[in-house]
Amino acid sequence: MKSEEVYDTWKEEKSQIDIRQDFADEVMNQVYQYAQKKTKRLLDVQWLIELISAHPLAKAGLIAAGAVAGFIRVAFVVCMFLSS
Amino acid sequence: MTSEVELIRQILEGDIESFSLLVERYQKPVVRMIKNMTDTRKSCEDIAQDVFFTAYKKLASFDPARSSFSTWLFTIARNKSLNALKKKRTLAMRELPEKTDPSNPSDDLARKEFFIELDRRLQALPFKQKTAFVLAEFEKLPYEQIAQIEGVRIGTIKSRISRAKKKLRSALKNLEGDIL
Fold it and tell me: How many independent structural domains does chain A possess?
């Protein structure tokens, strides 16, 4: 057998693959578990607090939302005071 | 057949089952790529599972305008392979095969020795050359897609593949004199 032939047969062999039957099922099990956990977690307030505190952007967003709400409240009180 | 972009949209809207279609479509190429990249028969399926799981978790970040799903998936597989290789870097390379009986050139054993040597040389290639070679020769991906996965120009990919082939062929030439 010539080296070229060997090389081609080797490439051919490397292109073959057998994977276990339940490969896709195992991936999907992992995915379902993850999705279930994620849904459960969204209802968990403690987890939401931890999630927000772990992400600087989420923290900044929350602070900005708080500042806007505070500003609106102050403006509302001032308007009420001036109108009376 | 539903387009991949449509499938991904369905998955992101909560139809998890649709993800299994993507897994079934790409399981063989991904497992094969990882097997050829890492040479770990036992754990390549575990790494491949991790690739698909990561793909699911990060699916919202996939941008069809930037690349195809397969390019994106192979990029994850490439990175996971690199991590796996870093972990097993300490493992020793396989010993060079013992020479077989030169009087019987068609011997299966001689061919096996060639294969072992080629496997060894493939694993010894620098990671970037090996990735380009595996994706082009075993996965039959076009050079443009490989360039996208690797984040380099097509010319660079061509040159990496050419260097990898040269090294593998030179290994064969060296052995040819000994075995055949």
Answer: 1
The rounded distance, in Å, linking the Cα atoms of B154 and B156 is 5
21-50 in A: which are within 8 Å (CB) of B?
23-24, 26-28, 30-32, 34-35
Residue A73 lies in a domain: yes
Kindly state the average pLDDT of the residues B158-170: 93
In a domain, A54, yes or no: yes
d(CA B85, CA B102): 35
The amino acid that residue A30 corresponds to is: Q
Query: What is the model's pTM?
Result: 0.74
- Report which DSSP code applies to B41: T
In 3D space, the residue among B174, B85, B180, B89 whose CA is nearest the CA of residue B131 turns out to be B85
A58 in a structural domain: yes
Q: Half-sphere exposure of B18 toward its Cβ, with a 13 Å CA cutoff?
A: 16
Domain containing residue A71: 44-84
First-to-last alpha carbon distance for chain A, in angstroms, is: 102
Q: Which two tokens stand for residue B76?
A: 């994850």
What is the residue whose two structure tokens read 């699916």? B59
- Tell me which of B13-17, B146-150, B159-163 is least confident: B13-17
Cβ-proximal residues to B18 (8 Å cutoff; 6+ apart), any chain: B2, B7, B10, B11
pLDDT tens profile A33-68 = 998 888 776 667 777 787 788 888 888 999 999 999
Q: How far A68 CA sits from the closest chain B CA (Å)?
A: 29
- Structural domain contains residue A14: no
Residue B171: what are its φ and ψ, rounded to 5°? -65, -40
